[in-house]
Protein 1
Amino acid sequence: MAMMDTPRMVVGVPRENRLGETRVALTPTALPQLTKAGFEVVIEAGAGATAGFPDEAFIARGARIGTRDDAFAADVLVQVNVMDGDPSNPDVSRLRAGQIVVGAVAPFARPALVSAVAATGATLFALELVPRTTRAQSMDILSSQAAVAGYQAVLIAATELPKMFPLLTTAAGTVAPARVFIIGAGVAGLGAIATARRLGANVEAYDVRPAAREEVASLGARFVELPLETGQEEGSGGYATDLSEETIRKQQELMAKTVAASDVIITTAQVQGSTAPVIVTTEMIRGMAAGSVIIDLAAEQGGNCEPTVAGETVDVDGVRVFGVVNLPGSVPVHASQLFGKNVANFVGLMAVDGRLDPEVDDNVIRESVVAKGGDVVNNRVREALGLEPLPEPQAPEPVAAATPAAEEVAT
Ligand code: NAD
């Protein structure tokens, strides 16, 4: 059949409806990649406004502006927060069988939502489940947004701390650099280390993964050695695994001295899919000087600090613990630009010979799909819903030249 007879595949970008969300799921810079792959892009009027991208900027890159219904009529719907809230979100009833929905889903925290989307017959992809491999890095929204969050966390700490970050030698005396301690040296942690170093702070960092030692040192920070048997060698898909209660208690004990000596602590420790480990106790915080600042990036996962409350600032004897949420939303231009590129790369995987193929044989697609054909297809989500597990997918056939470094763990 001639290409001109084939209707164009349409990507729709509705306006985000989570309270306080400023980002948009696609930006004008990512559009040409999709149009070249044969997609038409429909943006709900005003969808990019809070992120700094007016409708005209999308039109200039080949998009069409439409209503919310126009955006929802698309073959592929892309959102920063997919179907925000619970299954009663009226957007769920706009979905139809065969439609593809892509974005951040929080599928393990919202199994009922995944189930409701599955019931519409739509195919749902949770970008949080994109594997942490070198090849998939360009689609990894957790990494792109965490890098932004690490940077922003340091800026918040720098403005809230009643001290300066850099060493300053003046005729009136010398000011010592601030001491910044980063706990968890993954994507957000390394971003925080780099930013704190650029501001001239004296930076220390700790992570349970021994491989983090070199990364920390390469950014000019000192790795805090805690004589602990954590068993966190590389090989768990780029993520740390849970520590025993006893190891965590020992970690807290050994870390207390570094915590007490720090002006700023930024906590970013996470074990994917688990609640955040509590690493800094209220008692440890009481050992810090009044005026010190803690930024807890893991607040939404329960927090790495005992007193953390997501979205709030808690005062512990003059030390303020910031339970920050959605820091990428405070720099929406770049956060959206990175998110949009991740989305375009992901959607591009499904464009095969000018057609849309959500069944394309690709491990990134396989691992991130959570609803398909009217059913919930992720076993962890099924377990949360009390459903029988599905047989694990068959071992993938190697795809020639398409997955050269597929299982290589990202650094
Ligand atoms: P990551 O997986 O890349 O890094 C987490 C690091 O924590 C890993 O290196 C891991 O080894 C380490 N870790 C795990 N358990 C530990 C322990 N007990 N002690 C020390 N280190 C430990 O994750 P990331 O992408 O950098 O995200 C970090 C956190 O930041 C997550 O909780 C994420 O949800 C959060 N985050 C928050 C925002 C926000 O706006 N608040 C935005 C993005 C990410």
Protein 2
Amino acid sequence: MAIKKVCVVGSGTMGSGIAQVSAQAGYETIMVDVTQELVDRGMNMIKTSLGKFVEKGRMKQEEMEGALARLHTSTDVKEAARNADYVIEAVFERAEVKLPILKQLEEACPKQTILASNTSGIPIGLLASATKRPDKVIGTHFMNPVPLMRGVEIIKSLLTSEETLKVTLDFVSSLGKETVVVKDSPGFVTNRIITLVLNEGAKLLEENLANIEDMDKIIRLSFNWPMGPFELADLIGIDVTVDLLEGIYQQTGWERYKPAPLLKRMVEIGYTGRKVGKGFYQLFAKA
Ligand code: NAD
């Protein structure tokens, strides 16, 4: 199956990044959101990111212009998806938002179109149930920031066909990404592991084992990680971390995924991380 036209639903952090790498790879790409203001914001994020690649000499000016010429926007999901060969949804991480979109896509897209979701943890099988083509529904879990991160988790539900998997692996590889296939399970692989690290970090802080600078330092130096758990939690967002933990905890009942009380207290007082300029490093940094 030849993919020419790609539709990305949601123009936020992830949707704009996915639309960018799709256009960079040569696909005609249409990015959808609910208002013109939101798609414009997404386009601006893309322009800034491409501009940085050009500035650093990692992309030619003509390549940037080519990618931008292949990018289109819309506020009408049905119209945007009408001719799409491959659709990726990257809207809010809530089943009640994603399911109606999958239904609309089911109605609007050609029968053979694959419907992929960038969900961080909602079961792909559940999303597939909103469509009459569960064999063509799959998870493509890109990482943030999409233009820089090379890994993509591909999630195959019990009903995803081998053909859908093959087309998806080829498509995602063509975006310059490395893929790993995982089963449809809560949190997949990446979030099963990283949420535990962040949760345990918060518990160590509750126990006053050491200060956050020292804990981040020893993890960076010991394991050659670019960031320690507190730096990473501030980057990912404390609210996102709590949601991910709670999602896995609710689906499995495993105590180890119960969010540390400190994380919940931080969300309640609005310390949700770097995106709001207030996180671990503002609350707990050494004076
Ligand atoms: P975001 O809040 O930045 O963007 C979501 C966008 O979806 C918003 O612009 C919103 O207006 C739009 N949207 C909501 N309802 C819509 C609708 N009906 N039609 C069209 N657009 C609609 O969120 P994000 O961080 O980009 O996350 C998107 C998805 O990617 C989520 O499922 C999230 O779990 C997943 N994800 C996020 C990250 C991350 O680090 N941010 C990493 C991996 C996966």
